[in-house]
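The instructor's notes for this session suggest beginning with a concrete chain rather than abstract definitions. Hand out the sequence below and ask the class to guess, before any prediction is shown, which regions might be ordered.
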Amino acid sequence: MQQRSLKSVMVSVAVSKLSETDFVFVQPGAKINIVYYCHNILEQGLLPDIRRSSSDNFLFQQDGAPAHCSRHTVAYLRSHVPEFIEPENWPPNSPDLNPVDYSVWGAL
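After discussion, reveal the predicted structure:
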């Protein structure tokens, strides 16, 4: 019997009570470092979608992934989003504030 190899896909999405962004797919084999995250995920993917639905009227929050917590990413967000919750103010494991991890991925 031949075994099937499972393939994984890494994707980012932003969700709010008003809308959600398109999925931003990570290139297979890409290393998610702070430069890739800020340029490919935020600048090219999530932030333009968020702005289309909410203009500059949004509050941005991330989870605790290493690329999200870096000083480089925090500096990027300070200069590119109207308002965001900094890592030291993130509540731990909150299903209400992180619907993607607790609701969306569970349904998939």
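Then share the key points. The domain at 30-101 is CATH 3.30.420.10 (Nucleotidyltransferase; domain 5). The longest strand covers residues 11-12.
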